[in-house]
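[job 4471] stage=fold_predict status=RUNNING
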Amino acid sequence: MGKKSIGEYKRAQTVTLYDAGFTISGIARQLNISWACVKNAIIRYRDHAPWHTSNMVKGQIRKLKINMLEWPPNSPDLNVIEEIWGIIHKRLPLKSINTKEELQKRLQEEWDEISITLCQALVDCMPERIEKCLKAKGSHFT
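[job 4471] inference complete, writing structure tokens
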């Protein structure tokens, strides 16, 4: 008998929960699927999603004729969206989440709470972040 596979819908739910910070065992319990299926979906996501996403983004950047580095810096501190996701990640456990719909609702609520002022502050501090990254020779610095 071959590997048991989960459908695209369950795979999307798995990835969403994983990105929201749920553990593999927590996702398996939440979606009532095996730990191995969750792990395989996450591995598949890690192996394929970044490649597709980066190629799409690179294509759009090239169309806009924006200069870009051959490869990104090693530091995640230059990605301000990671800072925003970190804030949302800390806020999510403040209320109980029992279903996918509740997770989606809570994510949307927390996303809506992110202020323009915070986003602007993160963008405004980018020159300082770049300077710190250069001093750290491209490594993690915060």
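[job 4471] summary: The chain is about 65% helix and 0% strand.
[job 4471] exit 0
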